[in-house]
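User: Fold this; tokens only.

Assistant: Input:
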Amino acid sequence: MTRQKEPAFTGETMSDEERAAWLEAGRRLFAKEATFVLGAAALVQIPEEPLPEVCFAGRSNVGKSSLINALTNRNKLARTSDTPGRTQELNFFNLGDRLMIADLPGYGFAKAPKEKVKQWTAVTMAYLQGRAQLRRVMVLVDSRHGLKDSDHDVMKMLDQAAVNYQVVLTKIDKLKGNQAEKRVAETQDALAKHVAAHPVVIPTSSAKGDGIPELRAEIGALALPE
């Protein structure tokens, strides 16, 4: 298989004017009202919406809900917790009738009954492989720890299903000196082995706002036009 051709949504190869327009388009999208649609515990509950969709996946407690809140400038749109496994359903949000956002349960360790974890993991994996309107999976990775085996397993599954995904590093503010730059570089090197991966890694901090404008712009390019 060959890597899917991707548009250069990095902003780095754009002129100043193009980059400013790219960032502004993302800002406008996320300035729209974001409304909770529903939480799905089974495939039959997942909404059949015509909107393009972007979902946030990652290990438990990686910061998915915090990142969604930072993107939308809402403190409590997505429920956050320090306890792995708080998100136990696929939560869907409508962003200005231009995009659907899905906050997925975490994979890996979670403080929940094993049968419950098995159930939501099965639903999540089936959703990731069979959602026709899913434009991109944002695979969130804690920058302090880098890619883990469970991340590679999910990415391999997405490769096989030909589902486009992009790695977003979270909590980048926790790294010191040139650690952040090294983490981004090693993650990009690892992605070169994955055929469905978007080649651009976005380092972010929900607490400090790092990378939030760029991530909004990446996602904005996948939404319905204004």
